[in-house]
Amino acid sequence: MSIPILIAAAIVFIAFVAHTIVGNREALTTRPSAPDAVAGGNSATVERNWVQSLCAFQMVTVDLFVLSLLLFALGATELVPAKREVALAASVFFALWGAAWLIQLLVLRRSLRDYLLLSQWLFWFICSGLLYWGAQAL
Known about the structure:
This protein is mainly alpha-helical. It is 78% helix and 0% strand.
């Protein structure tokens, strides 16, 4: 059993639950309101883009759920072969998620306040560190 990996699994599962409940509610509030007034009459494109972003959002929900199951299995069972390698790969994956989040904030030239309010990047770096730490004991 690897406590750091189980902690990462719990964080990812909590992120899944938050993504499912709070995230869905927030994502649905971004629906374009007045189709005729949006983007100079280009409401079909705006609506399609909104649907596409919502679909991508749901794909992340699935990713979080599957990753939490994988990490719980990795940390608490012997079901996963090559446990160290899988933990290291997951560590890199979460580090990439964190980096992508920060790069996106940088490219969009967001304020320091947004870096704090949109601090999901911090959770991904914490999970990355926990997985790397847990991999060392496997």
